[in-house]
# Entry
Amino acid sequence: MRATLMHGAGDVRSEDIPDPTLVEPTDAVVRVTAASICGSDLWPYKTLEPSEEGRPMGHEAVGVVEEVGDEVSIVKRGEMVVMPFAFSDGTCLFCHEDLHTECLHGGFFGNGGPDAGGAQAEAIRVPQADGTLFPLPTDADEALMPSLLTLSDVMGTGQHAAVVAGVTEGKIAAIVGDGAVGLCGVIAAKRLGAEQIIVLGRHADRTDLAREFGATDVVSERGPEGVERVRELTDGLGAHSVLECVGHDESTQTAIGIARAGGAVGRVGVPQSETMPGSQTAFFGNIVVGGGPAPARAYMDDLLPDILDGKIEPGRVFDRTVGLEEVPDGYRAMNEREALKVMVRP
Amino acid sequence: MRATLMHGAGDVRSEDIPDPTLVEPTDAVVRVTAASICGSDLWPYKTLEPSEEGRPMGHEAVGVVEEVGDEVSIVKRGEMVVMPFAFSDGTCLFCHEDLHTECLHGGFFGNGGPDAGGAQAEAIRVPQADGTLFPLPTDADEALMPSLLTLSDVMGTGQHAAVVAGVTEGKIAAIVGDGAVGLCGVIAAKRLGAEQIIVLGRHADRTDLAREFGATDVVSERGPEGVERVRELTDGLGAHSVLECVGHDESTQTAIGIARAGGAVGRVGVPQSETMPGSQTAFFGNIVVGGGPAPARAYMDDLLPDILDGKIEPGRVFDRTVGLEEVPDGYRAMNEREALKVMVRP
# Structure
């Protein structure tokens, strides 16, 4: 089949690789109908060591179940499913706590691990199929596919940031970052009832979309000026809930700086440093900092009806669609911020 | 009156200073019957710049209200009260959220600020008396005074760590640090229903007391060995709730390292660095890090009955009592870890 492999920083190729097959009895093979390129794919795109064998890429997909192993009993052949970016057994103590990304038998797709095939391909092997795959209603409208695809990562990740940041009815939420996750964070904050939604970003086309998703204020300043501006917008107090959707030191410092005393920061941008800035600021403000890889699987039941009803349209974050042969150019376009988020249609 | 002033690192003196008087109509003057030296007083004891005027020290006290300003209506002259380490108006939005240490009109005693007199003295001016002072029952047993005094800081601080770390019935709590706050954290974790309580400390007399307070396990190893040991004690998973009661980089790293995925760290040790270690570890474990200066005032209503009933005895953390003239030696003894916590009886 055709698949996307990254052979080093900036070196993405569409290639022929063997078709995926069942390895464990708990596996399924899914034929991918839509996948996408993630902001987190841009990290290896900037930094991956060169290799001859290459790394299969992609961790977000919607597709049709093609084969199931002998121990797969929930997921059925022929079903349309969403594949979250992490696989999980659905039965361990962490899965029962809705923390599927900490599953004792889980892992992450497209990260180079032995069980972690790539979704930017014609098909993918899915370990722990029963716990991982989320069956879609048979009558789901094709026009909803982009939004359903966001359940695999960005919408669930925005939701996780909002949940961890404790967004509730009538509160002030601030979102640091205007990428696809930040925009989904706006949707999540609106959906959870935030009254004022401030988005920090400087790309007009993205912040315009943020406004359509429910943002009430846009702050284009960064660093101390951005903090100052958010404080002006919040009676000097800051936001109850801050969604950190970037992961850089500067954005983390900003996120903590704009949180109100006693507030919370939900981090979903993968932190690029092992030390976190703003530790004393967070401490003296009694600000809680939480978050991590989103248990996207856990949020699907909750988010699906709003997508089916058209109440939320996270699929609008896709502004480009490519075939498998054009995936390398999709990476280039996202890396150069020419595209916000790229959908892949194998 | 006699009072304690710090004139620089290691330079604590008992001196004559003017008696405190009412300045604002919301003030009270409290005659101190018992005060204490706090672990946090040892930071200026190690680092304070020399000064001629000196800084009035002490922020934990029990005493009798001697005078009240015209606008003080709740607190009465002659009442026995606990004075928490921070003053607060009791009416602002943060006080209403039980976050008195973030009060819009509040501040901290004994930190050198203009409204921040010291409690290691015969008397102290208390701003925002109605919001700050906590009246005690008239029949409170003198033998309970040490425990009641801990409501001013260490018991409330241990409680805050446990609350922020989300200690609940049947969970595993781990306490990093065997100082007075850590020991009160053990009491708080036990009181909130933790089933397994692991204390990390290496002073046998303190960890023995921790066991009497309810600790089920003691880990004397530090750093990666300490993390390893806690994991062994918790089926490899770590503790649901970790109370960080030290504030050093190493202890913070340990606290995050021993937290279970999806768990929480409640920090009450004042962080000595502006960057926090363990940021990625916390992120990939979806571990929440919260905490800050404890709203000791907010916890008094809840903790008082258990002290009056003898259910908890946090006053046992005091292992030395001195008069005002011996306070300098009290600092020395605590700094040299000869004493765990020193009570001051003016």
Q: What stands out?
A: The first helix of chain B runs from residue 42 to 47. The mean pLDDT of chain B is 97. The radius of gyration of chain B is 20 Å. Chain B touches chain A at residues 94, 97, 99, 101-102, 164, 261-262, 264, 267, 270-271, 273-293, 295 (CB under 8 Å).
